[in-house]
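Fig. S4 source data, part A: sequence.
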Amino acid sequence: MKDKIRIASGQGFWGDLVDAPYHQVTKGDIDYLVMDYLAEVTMSIMQKQKSRNPNLGYAIDLIDLMKKILPITTKKGIKIITNGGGVNPIACADAILEVAMKLDIGKLDVAVVLGDDIKDCLDEIIQKGCDLNNMETGEPITNVKGKLLSANVYFGALPIVEALKRGADIVITGRTTDTGLTLAPMIYEFGWKNTDYNLLAAGTVAGHILECGAQSTGGNFLGDWQSIENFAEIGFPIAEAFPNGEVVITKHKNTGGKVSFETIAEQLVYEIGDPKEYITPDCVADFTTIKLEEIGKDKVKVYNVKGKPETEFYKVSCSYHDGYSATGTLTYSWPHALTKAKAADKILRKRLENLGLKFDEIRAEFVGYNATHETLAVKLDEDKINEIVLRFSVRAKDRTTVNRFGQEIAPLILTGPPSVTGFSGGRPKPKDVVAFWPALIPKKLVQPKVKMINLS
């Protein structure tokens, strides 16, 4: 058993800083690089890509990244864990192995975690008595089954642990919990049991801190963000993990950003729901028990985490097609910019009404005034407003209705209030609306599988 391992976050989402993983493997010593690419909407995007091309459906950024880091990680013995396999982890693994062959890397063991994609198994699951009821509305999934784009189970750390036990240098998964990517190497290296709930909770908390990348090292920081140094070269977080469950969050010394009590505490309360019951497939963590202590520059110790047994369910993330939307913008200038924009809003709504168009939602935002805070926006002196952007959006079930809206916003330039500019993109085109369907499934109805693909 090792007395410490260093787990580095390389991505917080698909589209994060592309060079962050390279810096993590080159600017200091680490044992594991974990990269989180997935979000609910990401799965539907990947599913669409796969439907067009059976060789796609994963985070394609991974391939160019591997060209840069594989020679380094194989030489240093750094293991890579990522859920960037999306809805096609086999194709992702094959593409990575192709890169490895071109780089003349002699030996590479890649593990793929399968079984999370249940879209093609829904009939069988429903027949077994699980209706995958929407967690918010209670509706059965049969209400939207014909419009489903994706349906994926959130697996936890244990399939990744199995992959590591089987000698994987790289683990590619589909829809795995963000926290499981970090927890898995701790279970594997320290021999934690699946009943060591306090230890599992400690690893889960560490995973939650790492999952959003630089958001825990000063990025998107609501505190004294101006005190954060060198945003341009911000360092991503590293978890120094110990067998007793204590974790020290830090970053490489020669990078920007900041690790402090405040940056870590702010990340801890991000997207957690009930802080006493942070539910994962591996355990239920009690965030109210967490203790933080700054033990040095850019070093925060996380300890005293308590946990409880896991539930009998996995969460399922589904997406489905729910109509079309379109957005257009117009910019109105001083004087009385806000008054002009509000007048344009009323004119456009009346014209849509006169046309008899029915929308599921119409939204007008006045960027520069209330687009962020909506009804909480503080009233402004119009004489001090240089310009306002009217961002007008509609959503409807049928494409024709949304397309007709696109023909109405541009005419406001010459048939509405004066001093208008900044019309973007011509006629706004209808775009697919992807809706989210959260559900639960008994763990006994799905089984993760680990497949090894070796280059030797």
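Fig. S4 source data, part B ends here. The mean pLDDT is 95.
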